[in-house]
Structure formats: C-alpha cells, structure tokens
Amino acid sequence: GAGVSQSPSNKVTEKGKDVELRCDPISGHTALYWYRQSLGQGLEFLIYFQGNSAPDKSGLPSDRFSAERTGGSVSTLTIQRTQQEDSAVYLCASSLVSGETQYFGPGTRLLVL
Amino acid sequence: KQEVTQIPAALSVPEGENLVLNCSFTDSAIYNLQWFRQDPGKGLTSLLLIQSSQREQTSGRLNASLDKSSGRSTLYIAASQPGDSATYLCAVRPNSGYALNFGKGTSLLVTP
Questions:
Q1: Taking every pair of C-alpha atoms in chain A, what is the biggest distance, in angstroms?
Q2: Alpha carbons B18 and A36: distance in angstroms, whole number
Q3: CA A33 to CA A21: how far, in whole Å?
Q4: Nearest C-alpha neighbor of A50 from the set A110, A100, A104
Q5: Mean pLDDT per 10-residue run, chain A (113 residues)?
Q6: In terms of CA atoms, which chain A residue is nearest residue B33?
C-alpha cells in the first residue's frame, strides 16, 4: 500500500512569505506527527494529532507555525512570515495508533531566501 | 528534558565487518525505542522498535538491544554491506507524550 506522502518535495520562498506544506498519512492511521530536521541538528518534534482530540502543539517554535488536520486524514503545516532560520526539512509521520511505529514521509525541503 | 546521544557520529568500515552503533538516553522513563535509517535526501525508514519491557529485537542482519535502567541501546549490524551505508537514528518515546526524541545519528559508510 501507499506510504506517507508529502508535497511539495522542495519549496523555495522569499523571507516574509507564507508557505503551506501538505502531508497525506497512510490510510487508516489515526496518529499524525510533524517534525523538523535542520542542518546539523537532530529531528525536533513540532506537533501531533490523534483522531479528533486536540493536537499537542508543544513543539511549535513560534506562533508563526500552525497546523491542521482535516477529516482525520490530510494535514497542512503553515508557516507565516517565513524567516531564514525556518529553512529545514519538514517531515511528517503517521502511526496506526499513538505510540506505535511511526512511518515517515520523504519530507519537504524548505529554503527561505 | 530527554537527551539522546549517539556515538560515534560517523563510522567507516570495510564490507563484511560486524559493527555496533550506540545510543544513550538520560531519562529511563521510556515507552519504547526505535531505530531508523535515513538515506541522503530521503525520509526515515523504521528498522526496529523495542518496547520498554523488551530486551532486544532482531530483523535479518540487525539486532537491537535495550537496557532501560542504564539508558542504553545498541544496534548491531552483522556482515555489513555497501547498501547499509546511511545515517542511523535512534529515537525514544517517553512514557508521557507521543513525540519521539531523536539523537543526531551515526553516519555509516561501508566500503567495498
């Protein structure tokens, strides 16, 4: 079956612009996670969705970052007024149930000029 | 805050060697530990997941062990192959919450 897909695969934007990153989880997976991987840094958690529960936003670095998950499936991560330090690979993962094996998408490489 | 450390940061071995990658974590209150592989420009592939109650997991040439009390895990790769060249990441899920805490990885190069 299809794995986690993300789009776009690459995004170049100018400082100050807004960007939207999309994640399609594996069908039937109830949990969805966003992570960020910056050059020279490890992966850092951003946000987590489980079913219809309120998301865990504890990893979002600033109020310029937001995410939503519509219909318990597709998720969009929005970064407003992008800054150069937002340049990173944004990875999405899903799991059948919370806490179990997370399956990752290929990521979106964001470059803010 | 959980800190996950992986040693070494980079490793180069000739094909056929057995090797061990190390992962340590500061808070032993973990739910599970997962090893991933990341190829350049790609996402992460899950290799092995060890629940906190388990001591080891095996898949093919890979064996991962977990010593929760000492905050350590090892990934053993037997008879390494050039196709094993990648970055290997260790991640722990705490008892509280679902987000994974990742180490910075070990970059492995297996030379023919």
A1: 38
A2: 32
A3: 13
A4: A100
A5: 90 97 94 91 90 89 94 92 96 86 93 97
A6: A101
* Residue A92: strand pairing partners: A34
The 10s digit of each residue's pLDDT in B50-69 is: 999 999 999 999 999 999 99
Q: Which of A98, A101, A107 sits opposite B43 (nearest CB)?
A: A107
Q: Cβ contact (<8 Å) for B43 and A4?
A: yes
User: Measured between alpha carbons, how far is B59 from A88 in angstroms, rounded to an integer?
Assistant: 32
Contact A106 B43 (CB under 8 A): yes
SS3 track for A47-71: EEEECCCCCECCCCCCCCEEEEEHH
Are A45 and B100 in contact, with CB atoms under 8 Å apart? Answer: yes
> What string of H, E and C letters represents the secondary structure of chain B?
CCCEEEECCEEEEECCCCEEEEEEECCCCEEEEEEEEECCCCCEEEEEEEECCCCEEEECCEEEEEECCCCEEEEEECCCCHHHCEEEEEEEEECCCCCCEECCCEEEEEEC
CB pairs below 8 Å between A and B: how many?
Answer: 58
